[in-house]
Amino acid sequence: MAPGGQPVLDHSYARELSGAHLPWTPSPVTRPRAVRLNHALAAELDLPAGWLQAESTLRVLAGAEVPDGAQPVAQAYSGHQFGVFSPMLGDGRAALLGELIDPAGRRWDVALKGSGRTAFSRGGDGRAALGPVLREYLMGEAMHALGIPTTRALAAVTTGEQVYRERPLPGAVLTRVAASHLRVGTFEFAARRDRDLLRRLAEHAIARHYPHLAAIEPDDERYLALLRAVIETQTSLIARWMGVGFIHGVMNTDNMTISGETIDYGPCAFLEVYDPRTAFSSIDHGGRYAFGNQPEIAAWNLTRFAETVGPLIGEDREVVVPRLIAALETFDVAHDRHWTTVLRAKLGLTSAGPDDAAHRQRGDRALGEGYLDLLRRGEVDFTLGWRALLAEAEADAVPGDGTERSGASDAAGGVRALLAGGSVPAAEVEDWLSRWRGRRREAAPGVEGLESMRRANPIYIPRNHQVELALEAAVEHEDLGPFDRLLAVLADPFTERAQDAAYAEPAPQFVTATYRTFCGT
Ligand code: AMP
Ligand code: MG
């Protein structure tokens, strides 16, 4: 913590990666006003007490002033957008103020989004509207509470300016805290520039996110290890998305981090009725980024990442390409491992130990996917479908062994009730349930299994209609009440609470059927 109550910002990105950024200058704003400040996050970061809510800070958070001693930059990056390469994207409406070091020694980017035009703005106005800013705030906090790696909002402020989308809207700036803003697209940018920048970027990424690889020699082995590490963290991330029904919506390579955090909440949304083909984004006509495609798209993006790493591995393509392919082949194995782990937790089978045979793991993945297939054919709400399975497990718990049902899950009803009257024959449901019960008896997960099953199967997710209601009240009526209420519900997504029953309800079918999300900020 700095004297004078100012956070100390470091600038390792700006310092080490010249050639991958341009200086950023603030834009005047009329009347900055704090809409929401994330005091919990400020405390985690050990920001000076009172700094976040200080009047002088507001001008910084609105993008109207540079913090003392800071050297903000707009970061350069390229990216494959819907499969098409754009060599020059970059922070067109964002700026990296600098980096904070938290009490544990971890480094965090503090960036603004919606903070005015930059050298990368092209035709854009560099601004953001309040609705999407609050949307990103809410989604990031929801994902954090679900235990999924994510960037987070430190603040949402309005600028007093109007931004023009289809109509005039209140302009706003999001302050975003991230493990870093290094993207696959940053590597794509550097790879097209020069070898020296690419090497500096790879070393920067290793030092920052994978320091345990720093000592690997020779260089080519270290860079291959970086590739494998990013494959590992990204497969872990995507499996977690798949476990809660999260649809990112715009998995372009510039929206995929090297750190393994979820980034850029634009058109994202959560599944309601389970259908892997679900895509809500208005611009995703072909369903490229549909829910069920996400693992495959991650593999595609990581292949683009591997291509950027290639020149660091060696000159001879005949040698380099097979090594990259071998690294990329770890994707399927890693994905299977992470996805199976997620499914096992959701099924209440978390007693996996080193003695758990591979064939059993395969069986557990098939068992979990079998349940998903029942949910799909029964057109069941993804979240409530899994919660119903938790209710079954709680009902099965033997009284007196400490695994009794909380009683809270009664409301979700059993699996039979959810699937009754649908297109899935009752005998198939019974058959699946008895296989699941058999496997649970064998795995004997006990109290721990039930508890981790609860934590793997949230009851509250950001329901599309609730998100829209909260944003509409905030933007149209300056009423933050619904936003705050929803934020509070999502802060503890696993514990069922009678007073929050409405937040567990699926959106009305007509809402889901016509629901569209938008990229624009
Ligand atoms: P995204 O859709 O957030 O992944 O952004 C894709 C690219 O468009 C990035 O380079 C953004 O900086 C740029 N961009 C999006 N909106 C704006 C805007 N309002 N002004 C300038 N650039 C923008
Ligand atoms: Mg983006």
**Counted beta strands:** 12
Shape: globular
Q: Which secondary-structure class do the elements indicate?
A: alpha+beta
How many domains is the backbone divided into?
3
* Uncertain residue ranges: 402-412
> Per DSSP, what share of the residues sits in E-state strands of 2 or more residues?
5-15%
The Rg value, from CA coordinates, equals 24 Å
Bound molecules: adenosine monophosphate, magnesium ion
Helix content: 40-55%
Report how far apart the termini are.
33 Å
| Secondary structure tally, helices | 19
Question: What can you tell me about this protein's structure?
Answer:
This protein has 19 helices and 12 strands. It is globular, with a radius of gyration of 24 Å. Mean pLDDT is 93; it is low at 402-412. The two termini are 33 Å apart. It has helices spanning 12-16, 39-44, 55-61, 130-145, 184-193, 195-209, 219-244, 294-313, 317-328, 330-347, 358-377, 382-396, 415-419, 426-443, 446-456, 464-477, 481-490, 501-504, 509-514, and strands at residues 21-23, 33-37, 73-75, 79-81, 84-86, 94-101, 107-113, 128-129, 152-164, 168-178, 246-247, 269-270. By secondary structure, it is α+β, with helices and mostly antiparallel strands. Helices cover 46% and strands 12% of the residues. Strands 2, 6, 7, 8, 9 and 10 form a 6-stranded antiparallel β-sheet that branches. Strands 1-3 form a two-stranded antiparallel sheet. Bound molecules: adenosine monophosphate and magnesium ion.
